[in-house]
Amino acid sequence: MFVLAEFKDVVKIPPWKFKRKFNDAITDELNHKLANKVFLNVGLCIALYDITKIEESYIFPGDGSSHTKVVFRYIVFRPFMEEILIGKIRSCSADGVHVTLGFFEDIIIPPHKLQNPSRFDQTEQAWVWEYDTGDGEKHDLFMDAGEPIRFRVVSETFMETLPISGPTGSKEVEKPENKSVSPYVLNGAIDEPGLGLLSWWENT
Known about the structure:
The longest helix is centred in the N-terminal third of the chain and has 13 residues, at 22-34. By secondary structure, the chain is mainly beta. The protein is 6% helix and 50% strand. The model has no long low-confidence stretch (mean pLDDT 90). The protein is elongated.
């Protein structure tokens, strides 16, 4: 679910932070700049892991800040394809089941990747698995908001819009003008035994 991504960047430390330990000041600046940002084909940045190289610092005329080129590794959220994750149902719509991991909410399980057969209940605003009990009857299993759900990651989508300069070799992806569009979306699936609401499989 989490990977380490190596970046290079020039870190600017303002004069009022010179009294701090140098490594701590660099760490603060990198986390402030990168945490919770999505970078194209990299993923969602979570936190600095370590700094592997610090080069000489420079102070330019007319600018009292120090500028230091650093090489560092950052913890990034980017699940592997086919990885199994557990989240909670955030909401349901005709588009599918929307899932959250707490720190990341742009996960959707589309209708064709739900247990079959499933239907969307407009009144309850929930998807329902029409579970075949084996004796010719069906039992409705509702996918309610807040329920823990186990799903398989099947695809990812990065939405490239106007990039902001990020660390060398990366592009930060801005939120598009349409706020309903996310810069990074995961598609999941629960269309096989063992996947779906945890409560479905507790006694199996």
